[in-house]
Amino acid sequence: MTTRQIEVPNFDIYLNGSKLANDVKKYISYVMVKDDLDMPSSFSFRYSTVNLLKGTWQGIDLDMFAIGDRIDIYLGMDKTKELISGSIDSLNVTFGDESSVEISGFSWLHKLTFGTITKQYTEKSDSEIASEIATRENLAAEVDSTDTRYDSVIQDNQSNFQFLLERAKRISYELGATEKSLIFRQSQENKSPVTTLKFGINLFDFSVTVNNLNQGSSVEVRGWDIFKKEEFSGSASEGDEDSKMGKSESGFKLSSGKSPIVLQASNPEDISNAKSLARDKYNELLLDFITGNGQCLGNVDIRAGKTIEVQGIGKKFSGIYYISSATHTLNSDSYQTQFDVKKTAI
After folding, report:
1. Residues 6 or more apart from 74 whose CB is under 8 A from it?
2. What pLDDT, in 10s, does the model give residues 130-184?
3. Distance between CA 341 and CA 307 in Å, rounded?
4. 3-state DSSP call for residue 46?
5. Residue 134: how many CB atoms within 10 A of its CB?
6. What would you report as the CA-atom Rg of the chain, rounded to the nearest whole angstrom?
7. Rounded-to-integer distance, Cα 346 and Cα 343, Å
8. I need a surface site. Which of 39, 52, 89, 284 has the fewest CB within 10 A?
9. Is CATH 2.40.30.150 the right assignment for the domain spanning 196-210+290-343?
10. Which ranges of 53-188 would DSSP assign to H, the alpha helix?
11. How far apart are CA 144 and CA 150, in angstroms?
């Protein structure tokens, strides 16, 4: 008779590069990591400030955890895997029946939110702008190349994060960072799933909403050629989907009516750029066709910007989904992952 191995929730936390010892870990009752496409990832964990054996306070004098300390969090079932690396941004100390300090912080991307600048970039592509900002922040650049060079792009009293996220969303790119690198990459919704979830086995619950898309069945981006003194445009519509995620009928094909839009404030450089911008906007709007959320057994591979495969929920809704956010929560008796997803076709 085969004995089934039982996996238990586990975590490791590294403080300034050193792994917390078990006699410190036992006072940590809760760990949470949030991952989102549109903001820096965040973390928090709760540390008991009462040492019952010694009858003393612990961790309340900034002698153990302090603002700016490096934190690396690993979660998993039995074996752990890195989920986030960043630094402490706040300490919330509570005195009461369950006295504790909640240590919170963000991924390294958060550093790009500090301060604002105004700067003009001339004759540069978006990838070249991202690389320049990386250099300015003393980071290596992990950048997917973009073709179009713009005569002028203004960073108008914006943080580097706000400015780069705006540029990224404009062309269906994603923004991220490690301690030493800035990441500016193409959207990943057409990539292979990182994991498979099956309802009733490792997927506890899952809900989806099918939306009637009322904006963007065709997208036209218009620009002005200052030399020829004439208007030009590029467009995108059915057939320009970046990914149907393994399905056949896209959201706009199933919508109740046509919903063309015209964008005149995108400032394309030329017809090719106008077509690219139109296609990027079309696919951005298409991702709102199916939105959903679920909860499963803790899984470190489920992260914003990745895809998962969901099985066991019927022919129409089983398939590949794009993760827009994920929250990993571990306490004394469980590790679960909650996530939000999007899908372009059914």
Report:
1. 11, 12, 13, 14, 80, 81, 82, 83
2. 999 999 999 999 999 999 999 999 999 999 999 999 999 999 999 999 999 999 9
3. 9
4. strand
5. 23
6. 23
7. 8
8. 52
9. yes
10. 126-136, 160-170
11. 17
